[in-house]
Design a protein that fits this description.
Structural class: alpha/beta
Radius of gyration: 23 Å
CATH architecture of the largest domain: Alpha-Beta Barrel
CATH superfamily of the largest domain: Metal-dependent hydrolases
Number of domains: 2
Helix content: 25-40%
Order of helices and strands: HEEEEEEHHEHEEHEHEHEHEHEHHEEE
């Protein structure tokens, strides 16, 4: 009996110790869980790198005239008063171009600033979209070690299958990518030339070999297929990670069903089509995503900017037909501006609850990280963004990050700064 009582006491003390050892507590906040639930007044508790509890606050509001009880914060614990703030899962970009140029020039130059921009926009996980392979891996390593403060980086290995002569060469390249430590093979174009050019025999042979080998060794392929026809063809062949919404034509319902039934997933990249403003110039002239005139400068311009309409509507078709539709930008410019461009385009065809699903659980699933990312739930990695605005009111409030937490660590805290919580808050020069 004494042994049982001793065990019970030990268990109780261990439980109390676990409660006291919470590292970060965010209280009194609106919590957008990401699975459709919203807690209007709740608390998120973080221990180590994980969320340990998400709960609605049961305490009644203080009675007018009565002093609120003093909160005792245990040593080593950080408490964030979330009054008026909104907590969401940290943002995920499933395909963004992060690296470029000579290594010394990149790491001594823009690397720190670009990673900071991503945190300021609320991103905690970003998949490299296919830059220099060695730079991609080195950036992942430096961020993971803490040398550079930035979002979690998923590194990629990029190569052109249409240039390879044999299936053996293709399979060797896939294995080399896996052995290098890359998380994915990036931006495999199929076909290499966009419509109306069909794929060549060699392209198709190499593509099938790459898909087969990637399944064997366990490394996903980011596939660039930009027309409805090529998207369907890739899905039927077994491609699962499509990193552009198809355009060049309206997607048919029957085509969306084929893509769904094949188990293929599609990331958005809808901001590709509409014009970009206030990024590459300040004179109200529309540009493409690289600063070239819009619509003439659109890559493979198919007809005076009609991509701006095709992309969000085709995305809606995929979403409504049960395809896992995720978030990506395929951009290089300022992360907050890029977030704004993608969200305002998605907002043409998607509700805010839809966008929350796309940015959270759908994007986590796209990357195969749904067990750890995408929602604010106990057991998930503590990747969180605390917003000054309420995104349920409008997409512009997604651009109000005040605090960003990655793996339980506060990596950005702008509370108290002059522009904290204001939409489209840009880094100060």
């Amino acid at each position: 009996m004494k042994l049982l009582m001793g065990a019970a006491v030990a268990a109780l003390l261990a439980g109390l110790a676990g409660q006291a050892s919470a590292d970060v507590v965010i209280s009194n906040a609106r919590i957008i869980v990401g699975d459709g639930k919203v807690i209007e007044h709740g608390t998120v508790t973080i221990q180590g790198e994980r969320i340990v509890s998400v709960a609605a606050d049961a305490a009644p509001a203080p009675t007018p005239g009565r002093r609120a009880p003093k909160v005792v914060v245990p040593a080593g614990q950080t408490r964030i008063d979330g009054t008026g703030l909104t907590v969401m899962a940290g943002f995920i970009d499933a395909h963004r171009h992060l690296v470029g140029g000579p290594a010394a020039q990149f790491f001594n130059g823009p690397a720190q600033a670009r990673m900071k921009e991503l945190l300021e926009a609320g991103f905690t996980t970003v998949q490299e979209g296919g830059g220099d392979n060695a730079l991609s891996l080195e950036l992942k390593k430096r961020v993971a070690s803490g040398e550079i403060k930035g979002p979690r980086i998923l590194a990629s290995s990029r190569w052109n299958i249409s240039d390879m002569k044999t299936e053996a060469e293709v399979r060797a390249a896939v294995r080399a990518a896996k052995d290098s430590g890359a998380d994915s093979i990036a931006e495999v174009h199929y076909p290499a030339k966009e419509p109306p050019n069909p794929p060549t025999f060699v392209e198709t042979r190499n593509f099938l070999a790459a898909l087969d080998e990637s399944r064997k060794v366990g490394i996903p392929m980011q596939i660039h297929a930009v027309s409805p026809a090529s998207t369907v063809e890739v899905a039927v062949m077994g491609g699962k990670m499509l990193i552009h919404t198809p355009h060049f034509d309206w997607l048919k319902e029957s085509e969306a069903d084929v893509i769904r039934d094949a188990g293929a997933q599609v990331a958005s990249c809808t901001g590709f089509g509409p014009p970009v403003f206030d990024v590459f110039n300040k004179d109200n002239k529309p540009t493409f995503r690289d600063g070239k005139p819009w619509p003439q400068g659109i890559v493979s311009n198919e007809g005076q900017g009609r991509e701006g309409g095709l992309l969000p509507i085709n995305g809606r078709m995929l979403f409504d037909h049960g395809v896992n539709y995720a978030y990506c930008t395929d951009t290089t410019y300022n992360a907050t501006e890029s977030l704004n461009q993608e969200l305002k385009t998605l907002n043409l065809a998607f509700s805010i609850p839809d966008i929350i699903k796309i940015m959270g659980p759908n994007s986590a699933r796209f990357l195969g990280r749904e067990k750890d990312l995408g929602t604010v739930e106990a057991g998930k990695l503590a990747d969180l963004v605390v917003l000054g605005g309420n995104p349920l009111v409008g997409f512009w409030n997604f651009m109000t990050a005040e605090v960003v937490i990655k793996g339980g660590e506060i990596v950005l805290d702008k509370r108290g700064s002059p522009n904290a919580g204001k939409p489209m808050d840009k880094p100060q020069s």
